[in-house]
Amino acid sequence: MTIRSPLAPAAFPDLPEIAGVTRRVARARYKDWDRCDLTYIELTPGTTVAGVFTRNICCSSEVELGREQVRRGTARALIVNAGNSNAFTGYRGRTAVEAIMAQVADHLGCAAGDVFVSSTGVIGVPLPKDKARAGVAAALTAKPCSWEVAAETIGTTDTFAKGAAASAIVGGRTVHVAGIAKGSGMIAPDMATMLGYIFTDAAVAPALLQEMLREAAGGTFNAITVDSDTSTSDTVLLFATGQAGHAPLAARDDPGADALYAAIRQVALDLAHQVVRDGEGASKFIEVQVTRAVSDDSAKRVALAIANSPLVKTAIAGEDANWGRVVMAVGKAGEPADRDRLAIRFGDHWVAKDGLAVDGYDEAPVAAHLKGRDIRIGADLGLGEGRATVWTCDLTHGYISINADYRS
Amino acid sequence: MTIRSPLAPAAFPDLPEIAGVTRRVARARYKDWDRCDLTYIELTPGTTVAGVFTRNICCSSEVELGREQVRRGTARALIVNAGNSNAFTGYRGRTAVEAIMAQVADHLGCAAGDVFVSSTGVIGVPLPKDKARAGVAAALTAKPCSWEVAAETIGTTDTFAKGAAASAIVGGRTVHVAGIAKGSGMIAPDMATMLGYIFTDAAVAPALLQEMLREAAGGTFNAITVDSDTSTSDTVLLFATGQAGHAPLAARDDPGADALYAAIRQVALDLAHQVVRDGEGASKFIEVQVTRAVSDDSAKRVALAIANSPLVKTAIAGEDANWGRVVMAVGKAGEPADRDRLAIRFGDHWVAKDGLAVDGYDEAPVAAHLKGRDIRIGADLGLGEGRATVWTCDLTHGYISINADYRS
């Protein structure tokens, strides 16, 4: 890993063991490097699964297959390849994934559809079957490893390993939720990708698990942006091993379901924030909150227009209270807005209200807020009850250096 | 003006005089600078006008008023203020514009609605009425100036003056079309804006003029992007003085209308390209052509997704044939596409076809193309007959320096 992001947490957190989850790693040597790059996570029989995937139409075979597998609702294993995304590789890419699924299924004596595969890294090069086969064989028999080692092994251009945990009480039992993620680095000629895997020992029917993950992702993994670009491989999977010993949850109003959902959402939010904190070249973590839009969906589109604006992101990098750029971004979102009701704040300091700079605007506290690492931008549209919060990072020379300063 | 863009033309072109158009400039001193910053263009009685404006909802009073004025269809004068955009300034901003309109209308003895005003520069600060009044008074009586001086005077952070011309035969007469533009610089704490003004001595009914401008803008001013951000003040006006002596054109199938349209479109395209060539930090001019989409509109959305992708733009800056990023951008556009039919080219060299890298891909000619200043990217979707071309520039350290490397 390269120089640790200045926005990284101090250390990898303590994650609880999740009964029914065993991690192993191995060297497949997908690139010319000496590090583990293949992660194998074995899941106990009876594990249920949910997934959300990139909406990029040019997605990888892993994503296509994953979408089908999630419909079956059960899982026994996860393989994550680092160094080759296997995207845009046609039928050869697909058969490489199917070969991995068959190899692991043989070992576990399960259906191939219970074996999930993700790959990130170079695109356009079919995953080398021989390296994958040897790597998987080594991983199947490797000794179990820690969460931190697994989190490091799924990473590619990440500058720190990402993990998060939470717990809840369900049916009188403490259930645990632990997750790891990778993203969002990008380096020649790799493709950035966000991968997230969340594990719980709760017992949850697949349909409910899917409902919980979809809802949680909306305000977490789907509310972050680094550069507005959408990977061809983005994947978040949620596995429930059912080992906690409570009666299985099947509906959202079952007792304990809300508590479990809250724990899952907390882990998803923590991981999503860590991905932004590892954004390429990031020097500031930015929260954009839009309030009083005509609807929550409208608020989110406005918030993303602000968060994706290169001019807003460079202003924050420059610690410049350039609220005009925020106004511009609100106006270009294509959502209902009224210039003369709009109010903008940095931190807790309102800089513009009712379509005008505030009277007696004092830039000193605003400037002080912008010198910090955690920046908050607010836009109040004054129209309705819709609200949304998204997160991004600033746009710096570091981003250009990572993505342009090389020749392939 | 700062260091001239490396993509600038060698010199300002020779523009023909347009009968009925007189240019004058003056110092309003909207900023603490010693340069002309107020342009006054007088138009002979009978001049018709058409306009297209920013779709940014948070637009300036100038844009709001301009939209109303264009519906009247006639024009006698244009005032362009440089250094203050007058955007997000509420009623005070609006009364400042109305005062200018009244002052010029008094001088010419025309309706206030025949006086068009544009402003670009600092936002959030109402246009100072006293400076505007004195500047307009000086401009009204200044001696006429050249196209080049007017083009320089409307500029703010432009690194070169932008002009273009063309001609056509209408009703046996040669009609001339000349245009000037400004954009797309941005510097603390100003807001970038594209302004374009096109003048012809042809005689054209307002409705037809509007139809021609709207159609021409679609493939020119509305087919360029620097950073995906949309100004609150973008304006293009087309004035027809009717002095060429041919029978007025009223319908698109009138003889000569097509020739005039072609000349207008040529000037619009030339000016639009010059705006991109002055894009902040630009080192490469990029043409993105999408073919065989399901429709022209769909092709344009895909082309803009490619042109606005920070990862594509940084790859071009790095002279990197990273076609995977183009694939990613096609896939994220949200338009119909089929990964396994997609083909990508740089210059005339296909690098991927049918969802795969081409067999025996030779990177040498692609690398040679990418070392040039004029880059062409093609994406063939293989689905239908839709096609579109858009233009952008690369994303470099220069962009970050201009937009982030300062403190306000």
UniProtKB/TrEMBL annotation, chains A, B:
Organism, as annotated: Sphingopyxis alaskensis (strain DSM 13593 / LMG 18877 / RB2256)
Mainly localized where?
Answer: cytoplasm
Please give the biological process terms from Gene Ontology that the record holds. Answer: L-arginine biosynthetic process; ornithine biosynthetic process
Function of the protein: Catalyzes two activities which are involved in the cyclic version of arginine biosynthesis: the synthesis of N-acetylglutamate from glutamate and acetyl-CoA as the acetyl donor, and of ornithine by transacetylation between N(2)-acetylornithine and glutamate.
Compartments it resides in: Cytoplasm
What GO cellular-component annotations does this UniProt entry give? cytoplasm
List ligand-binding residues for substrate: T156, K182, T193, E280, N403, S408
Known catalysed reaction(s)?
A: N(2)-acetyl-L-ornithine + L-glutamate = N-acetyl-L-glutamate + L-ornithine; L-glutamate + acetyl-CoA = N-acetyl-L-glutamate + CoA + H(+)
Q: Which gene encodes it?
A: argJ
In terms of Pfam families, this protein maps to: ArgJ
Similarity field: Belongs to the ArgJ family.
Q: How does it assemble?
A: Heterotetramer of two alpha and two beta chains.
Q: What is its EC number?
A: 2.3.1.35, 2.3.1.1
What is this protein's record name?
Arginine biosynthesis bifunctional protein ArgJ
Q: Where is this site: Involved in the stabilization of negative charge on the oxyanion by the formation of the oxyanion hole?
A: T120, G121
**Pathway the protein contributes to:** Amino-acid biosynthesis; L-arginine biosynthesis; L-ornithine and N-acetyl-L-glutamate from L-glutamate and N(2)-acetyl-L-ornithine (cyclic): step 1/1; Amino-acid biosynthesis; L-arginine biosynthesis; N(2)-acetyl-L-ornithine from L-glutamate: step 1/4
Keywords attached to this entry:
Acyltransferase, Amino-acid biosynthesis, Arginine biosynthesis, Autocatalytic cleavage, Cytoplasm, Multifunctional enzyme, Transferase
User: According to UniProt, where does the site described as Cleavage lie?
Assistant: A192, T193
UniProt cross-references to SUPFAM superfamilies, sorted A to Z: DmpA/ArgJ-like
PANTHER family registered for this protein in UniProt: ARGININE BIOSYNTHESIS BIFUNCTIONAL PROTEIN ARGJ, ARGININE BIOSYNTHESIS BIFUNCTIONAL PROTEIN ARGJ, MITOCHONDRIAL
Its domain of life reads Bacteria
* MF-aspect GO terms: L-glutamate N-acetyltransferase activity; L-glutamate N-acetyltransferase activity, acting on acetyl-L-ornithine as donor
Catalytic residues in the record: T193 (nucleophile)
